TrEMBL record:
PANTHER family to which the protein is assigned, alphabetical: AMINOTRANSFERASE CLASS I_CLASSII DOMAIN-CONTAINING PROTEIN, ASPARTATE AMINOTRANSFERASE
Organism: Quercus lobata
Record bears the keyword Transferase: yes
Protein name: Aminotransferase class I/classII large domain-containing protein
GO biological process: amino acid metabolic process
Length: 395
């Protein structure tokens, strides 16, 4: 065994992240268009970018900032959370994106060997974050086959029957990979079950502004609830890496423990990125919701492209930027289908197996402007028609 023998087993045993695998397909099939990555097509607000550009030579940009985030941004976020999310008793920590917020929380709230709960289909990065931080018992609950809502009856039984009870339950709302929105009464029931069992509830609100058909996003607050948010999709700031944690102020010691983790990973989120986040936030949520309105057309276009899979083949999409599609029964190995679609039809999507549900596809409709989305959807439709009619033939 060479020097690689020293790699940590916990990392070795995890699969390569699905996005890394899809990026590899993208490099190989350079003409393929992507309905894979969870991104939006817009850039950050021009006014905010102009202001950030002015800052480059300011010394504070090159120095470390406060671990929990620059005071101006934290203050603005506290206001935003009160006004928009009805979070009145929460403190805030700024992170390098919602993914880092998630890892911070797992490291802060869970110990190696704990059990945790998530629901299938799950957000692949959350699953891997648990695996890599020593959680050995990841209990994956079912979703309702029609609505894909987390099964709260299963959760109730699981929290009662697992000894010691799971330390943390997590949901994404609206969801990645399905776009399913968890209605407030159901979220409340999940929260009450967690509170009664002494478990934390971690809600990922990355897509809070991405709601369609008149639905309105809402958050819950409590001394057992942590919420995470992201600037990535809302303000087109994927590469700037800014997210945040809203955590209960009243829980003694939590702020200190979060700071320990933060100081050992990014120390602080990039200062210029935090400034850009602040300037973007100042434009108000309307800046985001105006752009989200445009995605309704993209969703329609992709929905139409999925029609070869039949009416019952497509679920979700009432929020976020995703649709969830069931492949014909023989295609359990969905990654083979994904590779074939890339190779033969020049379109990239995500295999459902990476979200714990083999035999499905996740399709993102956020990353392309309407004309490009149409072109990508045509390829997808062509591929799916052929798949259903002839199978995965290669010429
Ligand atoms: C549910 C969810 N959480 C977190 C993230 C990561 O967001 P960030 O770029 O803020 O780390 C994503 C990105 O796709 C996501 O879909």
């Amino acid at each position: 065994m060479g020097s690689f023998g020293r790699l940590a087993t916990r990392v070795v045993e995890t699969q390569m992240p699905v996005m890394v695998q899809v990026q590899e397909l993208q490099r190989r099939y350079t003409n393929a268009v992507s309905l894979a990555q969870g991104v939006v097509y817009w850039l950050p607000p021009q006014q905010a970018l102009d202001r950030a550009r002015e800052l480059v030579f300011e010394p504070s940009i090159s120095r470390y900032g406060a671990d929990e985030g620059i005071p101006e941004l934290r203050e603005a976020l506290i206001k935003k959370m009160r006004l928009e999310n009805k979070l009145n008793k929460s403190s805030v920590m700024v992170t390098a994106g919602a993914n880092q917020a998630f890892v911070n929380l797992v490291l802060t709230l869970c110990d190696a060997g704990d059990s945790v709960v998530m629901f299938a289909p799950y957000y692949f990065n959350a699953y891997m974050s648990f695996q890599m931080t020593g959680i050995t018992n990841i209990l994956v609950g079912p979703g309702n086959p029609k609505t894909l809502y987390p099964d709260a009856d299963w959760l109730e039984r699981t929290l009662l029957e697992t000894n010691p009870p799971p330390k943390l339950v997590t949901v994404v709302n609206p969801g990645n990979p399905t776009g399913t929105y968890i209605p407030e009464p159901l979220l409340k029931r999940i929260s009450d079950l967690c509170r009664d069992a002494g478990a934390w509830l971690l809600v990922d609100n990355t897509y809070e502004y991405f709601m369609y058909d008149g639905l309105k996003h809402s958050c819950l607050e409590g001394n057992h609830i942590v919420n995470i948010f992201s600037f990535s999709k809302a303000y087109g700031m994927m590469g700037w890496r800014v997210g945040y944690i809203a955590y209960p102020t009243e829980v003694e010691g939590l702020a200190d423990q979060l700071l320990k983790v933060q100081d050992n990973i990014p120390i602080c989120a990039s200062i210029i990125s935090q400034r850009l986040a602040l300037y973007s936030l100042e434009l108000g949520p309307e800046w985001v919701t105006e752009r989200v309105k445009d995605l309704v057309k993209n969703r329609e276009i992709v929905l139409e492209a999925l029609s070869p899979l039949g009416e019952d083949g497509v679920r979700g999409g009432e929020g976020a930027i995703y649709l969830w599609a069931k492949l014909p029964g023989q295609y359990v190995d969905d990654f083979e289908v994904v590779k074939w679609l890339a190779r033969k039809h020049g379109v990239l999507v995500i295999p459902g197996s990476s979200c714990g549900c083999p035999g499905n596809l996740r399709i993102s409709f956020g990353g392309l402007i309407e004309s490009e989305c149409k072109a990508a959807a045509e390829r997808l439709r062509g591929g799916l028609e052929e798949l259903v009619r002839d199978g995965m033939v290669d010429n």
